Every structure is written in C-alpha cells, then in structure tokens.
Amino acid sequence: MSTNPPDLRPDLAAARFAADRREGQPTIGMVSLGCPKALVDSERILTRLRAEGYGISPDYSGADAVIVNTCGFLDSAKAESLEAIGEALAENGKVIVTGCLGAEPEYITGVHPKVLAVTGPHQYEQVLDAVHGAVPPSPDPFIDLLPASGVSLTPRHYSYLKISEGCNHKCKFCIIPDMRGRLASRPARAVLREAEKLVEAGVKELLVISQDTSAYGTDWKDRDEKFPFLGLARELGELGAWVRMHYVYPYPHVREVVPLMAEGKILPYLDIPFQHAHPDTLRRMARPAAAERTLDEIAAWRDTCPDITLRSTFIVGYPGETEAEFQTLLDWMDEAQLDRVGCFQYENVAGARSNDLPDHVADEVKQERWDRFMEKAQAISEAKLAAKVGQRMDVIVDDIDEDGIATCRTKADAPEIDGNLFIDEGAEALKPGDIVTVEVDEAGEYDLWGWLLA
C-alpha cells in the first residue's frame, strides 16, 4: 500500500490553513492512507468539516476526534490500516474509520471494538454524521471562512481530479468493485467546474484519476458521445494547466486522445495497468488477453505522439505463472520499452477469487522473478533517460531545499511514483509551482539532472 507522503499526511504535518484554534472550536484530525483516490476523499471530508466550522488538527493531541481513512486493497494494506487505527486510539481515543477497509466493519471492530463508527469508501454523509455524534459542530460564520478551492492535502501547485468511482471490471485478484461498487461517473459539468476552480486557485497540474479513466461516462444511458472520456480530455486541455491521465485502460478509443497530447493540450503521458503479457496469465486474471494487439496500440500511440511516456504496473508470481509465462513477460517488456514501470509480487487478498486458483507460486520464486523483472525495467529506464541528455524540456518545480537544490518533474513524471529532475545550481530564486526550461546534462537509473536556462 502506498501512504500519502509524510509532508502531505495530516496526521504527521499541518494542512495548509490557519492552525490557530478559536475558543470553543471543535477540531478533527485525519490519517489518510492508500491511493490518490482515497486522498481526494479525505480532502472532501475535510472541506465539508471546515465549512461546518471544525478546525483541522495536525496532531493527535490537539484533536477532539480522529478520522482514519483506510486502504483495504491488499492484506498488507489492511494490516497497516489496522495499525494506524490502533495508534489513533492509543494517542487520542476517539476514532472514526472510513475508506475501503470500512466495507468490512466486522473485520475492523473485531480488532478495535472501541472505534466510534465505521463507514465505507466515499460515504461522506455517514462520516459527517459520525463526527457530529462524537464532536458536535459549533460554527462561527464570521470567523470560519472556507476558501472556494476547499481543503487541499497536496502542494498548492498540483491536485488530483477524481472523475468517477467504482469499476466494472472483474479482475480475479482485485476486490475494488466489491468495496467501491460499479462504475459511477461524475457529471462532466461538475468535473470541469472543479478543474476550473483549481486552476483559478493556482493549480498548475491536474492529475486525472479514477479506477478506470478511459471508461468515464460509459455508464450513462443517455450521452452525446460514445466515449465521454474524449470530450472531457478536450475540455480539460483548454484550461491551460498540465493535465496528466492516470489509470487508463488500453481501449481502442484511447488512440483518439493521443492527438491531444501531440498538440500539447494534455501531457503526453498514459498510466496504463497492463498487469502481465502472457495470454494464459491474463485469462487467469480475467483480463483482456491480447498482448500482441497491445503492442500494436503502443506503436500507434508513439507514431502519433513520439514523445509519449507510458507508465504501467505488473504482477509477478500470479497463481499458475510458469517460468515460460514469466519469460514471455520479460520478452514483451523488451518489445514494449515502457518508460515507467512498477511491479508487485502477487499476494492473496481476502475475498478475491484468485485465492482459490491452483498452483500458487512459492514466495522465493516470486522474489526471484521480481528481481529479474525490475532489473529489466531498470535497464530500459536507464537507457531511455540517457537518451534525454542534451535535450531541453519544461519542468515543474516541486521543492527547493535549504541548499538551493530544486526537485522538479518533467512532463514524463507524475508526483510520488515516477522520477525527478534535479537542478543543483542557480535554483535559489525558484519556488514550488514554477514551470521552467532546463537542459538535461546527466541521467541516472530513474532520475535526471539539468541546468536552468535563462
């Protein structure tokens, strides 16, 4: 499970609004775990609470109650969520649990019977009801003013834009549809209004997220476009911000959004969960098993937009995976030459159908295959980054440290999951959110270094 970075987690650091607590103001703390979609849920909950006059505490001791937004995707994530709940109970005592693990309330209360309430993912009203019961609101309309942009847990210059909930896929290793339900797309006007407000508030980069971004809008019975994802991408591309697409399944209509990348309307970046390449493994996963057609799609995308960056994640050691199937994945990687790659060793998840498959792979074999896969991915990344030396490119500044070194990202890098570009000299005057032009003069396995152009 990924955890929101320490400087973005409200249980470890203050969110960016007034920390002073007015007399009599009720205050809530939050621990936000899991993926960016969960982080958006946390932001929405905190925004609603701020609008009702609650203060947000950066620590346990200053909070009248604590909300723990959990992750339940993997058993290891469930364990970490239970640990976070236990810590909050020990440090504060009044704890409300929400998020994906909240879809299994008995699992939580069986370990932590003293929690005040348990709600499932994106059940904002139930969370608010639980907060009201534990800590009644006491708003002061003359003091408790909420910025139009709401509460943000990310740096000011980028923001996640969640466009839908749920998923219609039935992958055997995944329980997301059980926890978050079927695909439910937000109205386009609501998504665009939120995006416009974010850009007006100074956000320079919109990270579009959902469980299945390219399926956006296909759950609407009455729609003007067969694939509303394309229209949404066009509209977002007119806002003047960087627009980065995450969790895009490689449907044929995705080819139609790539020209927007070539035109500079949205970033030339696709985050696509391929998961594997061998058709038999993919069938056991209950995923599309047409790796060859996927290679054709990749070639078509690159033909339209040569600068496109492709990121993906894979699973090794899936039940029944043979050495020959794994070798097919390595060979496919050689052909696909993906730019950014992550890999997970398969693990059982309570409730997943893959648990019942035969021929589970031994842990030591999973580890050995993971090592070989990552060695392959690292070599591809290193070669691709080396080819960027001497190129000029725009980067967005994320941070300036006390030594004046700037940590930046290129258009090929999403925050927290991809690499960075570092500027070692002449960056003292830069500030987070600046978009500047650099020339790359050094490359590593995953990161770049460059110098600032005047």
Automatic annotation (TrEMBL):
It is found in: Cytoplasm. [4Fe-4S] cluster 2 binds at C167, C171, C174. Residues 153-383 form the Radical SAM core domain. One of its GO terms (molecular function) is protein methylthiotransferase activity. PROSITE patterns: MTTASE_N, RADICAL_SAM, TRAM. Binds 2 [4Fe-4S] clusters. One cluster is coordinated with 3 cysteines and an exchangeable S-adenosyl-L-methionine. Residues 386-454 form the TRAM domain. It catalyses: L-aspartate(89)-[ribosomal protein uS12]-hydrogen + (sulfur carrier)-SH + AH2 + 2 S-adenosyl-L-methionine = 3-methylsulfanyl-L-aspartate(89)-[ribosomal protein uS12]-hydrogen + (sulfur carrier)-H + 5'-deoxyadenosine + L-methionine + A + S-adenosyl-L-homocysteine + 2 H(+). Keywords: 4Fe-4S, Cytoplasm, Iron, Iron-sulfur, Metal-binding, Ribonucleoprotein, Ribosomal protein, S-adenosyl-L-methionine, Transferase. SMART domains: Elp3. Its main location: cytoplasm. Its cofactor is [4Fe-4S] cluster. It holds the Pfam family Radical_SAM. Residues 26-136 form the MTTase N-terminal domain. One of its GO terms (cellular component) is ribosome. The keyword Iron-sulfur applies. [4Fe-4S] cluster 1 binds at C35, C71, C100. InterPro entries: Elp3/MiaA/NifB-like_rSAM, Methylthiotransferase, Methylthiotransferase_N, Methylthiotransferase_N_sf, NA-bd_OB-fold, Ribosomal_uS12_MeSTrfase_RimO, rSAM, rSAM_horseshoe. Its EC number is 2.8.4.4. Belongs to the methylthiotransferase family. RimO subfamily. NCBIfam families: 30S ribosomal protein S12 methylthiotransferase RimO, MiaB/RimO family radical SAM methylthiotransferase. PANTHER family: RIBOSOMAL PROTEIN S12 METHYLTHIOTRANSFERASE RIMO, RIBOSOMAL PROTEIN US12 METHYLTHIOTRANSFERASE RIMO. This is Ribosomal protein uS12 methylthiotransferase RimO. It comes from Tropicibacter oceani. The lineage of its organism: Bacteria, Pseudomonadati, Pseudomonadota, Alphaproteobacteria, Rhodobacterales. The gene is rimO.
